[in-house]
Amino acid sequence: MNKQDLVSKVAELSGLSKAVAETVVYATFNSITEALKSGDEVRLVGFGTFSVSERAAKEGRNPRTGATINIAASKAPKFTAGKGLKDAVNG
């Protein structure tokens, strides 16, 4: 399912027009993104939790040359599925 499929499904299930459903879906994604950018967690009870994981700086190797390189510290978005989602997927 891609973003447009999700918009269509939301429109179908909610009775909204596709234009309104698209606005709602994009607003939801933007809200989650902004919360993560500001360092907050987004907890959706029964669905899951979006958070930011910190990766420390480390040394790595260039696979072609074998030369040591420095890999900068970074942040990565993370999703942990909630019990309701896990139970739904597992039947």
Automatic annotation (TrEMBL):
InterPro entries: Hist_DNA-bd, IHF-like_DNA-bd_dom_sf. GO terms for molecular function: DNA binding; identical protein binding; structural constituent of chromatin. SMART domains: BHL. It comes from the Bacteria. Pfam families: Bac_DNA_binding. The keyword DNA-binding applies. GO terms for biological process: chromosome condensation; DNA replication initiation; DNA-templated transcription. One of its GO terms (cellular component) is DnaA-HU complex. CDD domains: HU (cd13831). Keywords: DNA condensation, DNA-binding. Belongs to the bacterial histone-like protein family. Histone-like DNA-binding protein which is capable of wrapping DNA to stabilize it, and thus to prevent its denaturation under extreme environmental conditions. This is DNA-binding protein HRm. The gene is hupB.
